[in-house]
């Protein structure tokens, strides 16, 4: 699309609906001049989208093939491919490993106890037939549990896993385990690219922090994690896909690790100063920013439209785009998203 094509009001006509992620409400598909899929690709590959992507522009899949073997299952609970049992916790609408009976008491045991599954034996063709991608929007696979710290926690429980990171007697074993888990991740990437060729990206999970601070030092991050992150993201990029990071916690001081690990974007939790993150690092990694100054409970449509324009004016620069943070999305109204689309479409096209 030529960005010099002026915005037309009929672009905001709903021509269809797109199912929400993971059972969420349907979202309108507007009469946009390029598909949402093409717009998200422009954001990641050109750093110059046609408009600020919204919830309808991008989605994720987590096929049962992955979720019941390497994910967390659902309300029924699962025993994953490593023999780890995940129990569903109704209060948080998610699953955890019951602590107290870890697979590993010491990482040095991993070669005897951690058996990576033979993914070639899985019925990928049947799963691809059952789990379709809507090619109108951008789609990622969500690699819940990841391949590094989160996976280590599932093997050991949290405290022993955290302690292992600073135990000289276990560090070499951690490096070997993470090398093996990264090689396993690369094989998974190849399978997903083969059976879901329309897949646009990979969302990798690895939580690094608490409400107040990271779980481990920057030195530990660069020693044990960043090289393996970079190996995986480099491989994803050779496939023509982008790599996004899900990492919960107060990880402001670790964003350079994420950049050096090769990630294209990070959607931080709001205990991080997303505005400062954008200003300092937004030209190196796409940051999802929490829109400022919105009293959602009392805001009028005019207030919401003004907030959308302010977001675009501040955070939508060619070469330094931003996305809307996940934590804010439920508080934003149709008026916000309509203005966000129209104003950013004009902005990125040079008309605002």
Tell me the Rg in angstroms. 21 Å
What characteristic shape results from the CA principal axes?
globular
- Beta-strand segment tally: 12
Distance between the termini: 18 Å
- Structural class comes to alpha/beta
The H-and-E topology, N to C, reads as EEHEHEEEHHEHHHEHEHEHEHEH
Mean residue pLDDT: 94
Enumerate the strands of the largest sheet in spatial order, edge to edge or round the barrel.
Answer: 3-7-8-9-10-11-12
Characterize the largest beta sheet: strand count, sense, and whether it forms a barrel. Answer: 7 strands, parallel
Number of helices: 12
Would you identify the regions where 5 or more consecutive residues have pLDDT less than 50?
A: none
Strand content: 5-15%
> Percentage of helical residues?
25-40%
List keywords for this structure.
7-stranded parallel beta sheet; 352 residues; single chain; 14% strand
Account of the protein in words:
- With 352 residues, this protein is an alpha/beta fold.
- Helix content is 38%, strand content 14%.
- The protein is built from 12 helices and 12 strands.
- The chain has helices spanning 36-46, 64-67, 110-113, 124-130, 149-156, 158-164, 168-195, 218-238, 255-260, 274-281, 301-315, 334-349, and strands at 14-18, 27-30, 58-61, 78-79, 85-89, 94-97, 138-143, 201-205, 242-246, 265-266, 286-289, 323-324.
- The strands form 3 sheets. It has a 7-stranded parallel beta sheet with strand order 3-7-8-9-10-11-12. A 3-stranded antiparallel beta sheet has the order 4-5-6, with no helix packed on it. Strands 1-2 form a two-stranded antiparallel ribbon.
- Strand 1 and strand 2 form a beta hairpin.
- Helix 5 crosses helix 6.
């Amino acid at each position: 699309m030529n960005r010099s094509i002026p915005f037309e009001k009929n672009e905001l006509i709903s021509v269809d609906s797109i199912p929400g992620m993971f059972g969420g409400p349907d979202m309108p598909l507007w009469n946009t001049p390029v598909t949402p899929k093409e717009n998200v690709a422009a954001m990641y590959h050109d750093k110059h989208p046609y408009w600020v992507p919204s919830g309808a522009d991008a989605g994720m899949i987590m096929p049962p093939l992955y979720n019941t073997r390497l994910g967390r299952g659902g309300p029924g609970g699962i025993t994953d491919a490593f023999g780890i049992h995940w129990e569903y916790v109704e209060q948080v609408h998610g699953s955890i490993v019951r602590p107290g009976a870890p697979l590993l008491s010491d990482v040095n045991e991993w070669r005897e106890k951690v058996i990576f599954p033979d993914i070639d034996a899985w019925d990928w063709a049947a799963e691809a037939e059952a789990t379709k991608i809507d090619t109108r929007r951008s789609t990622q696979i969500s690699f819940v549990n990841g391949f590094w710290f989160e996976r280590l926690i599932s093997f050991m429980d949290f405290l022993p896993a955290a302690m292992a990171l600073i135990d000289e007697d276990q560090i070499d074993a951690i490096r070997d385990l993470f090398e093996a888990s990264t090689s396993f991740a690369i094989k998974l990437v190849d399978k997903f690219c083969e059976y879901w060729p329309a897949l646009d990206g990979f969302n990798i999970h690895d939580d690094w922090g608490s409400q107040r601070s990271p779980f481990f030092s920057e030195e530990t991050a660069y020693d044990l994690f960043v090289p393996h992150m970079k190996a995986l993201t480099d491989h994803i990029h050779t496939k023509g896909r982008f790599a996004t990071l899900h990492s919960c916690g107060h990880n402001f001081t670790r964003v350079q690790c994420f950049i050096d690990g090769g990630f294209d974007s990070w959607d931080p939790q709001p205990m991080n100063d997303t505005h400062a993150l954008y200003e300092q690092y937004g030209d190196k990694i796409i940051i999802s920013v929490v829109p400022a100054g919105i009293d959602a409970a009392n805001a009028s449509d005019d207030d919401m439209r003004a907030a959308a324009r302010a977001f675009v004016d501040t955070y939508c620069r060619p070469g330094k785009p931003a996305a809307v943070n996940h934590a804010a999305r439920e508080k934003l109204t149709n008026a916000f998203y309509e203005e966000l689309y129209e104003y950013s479409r004009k902005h990125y096209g040079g008309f605002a």
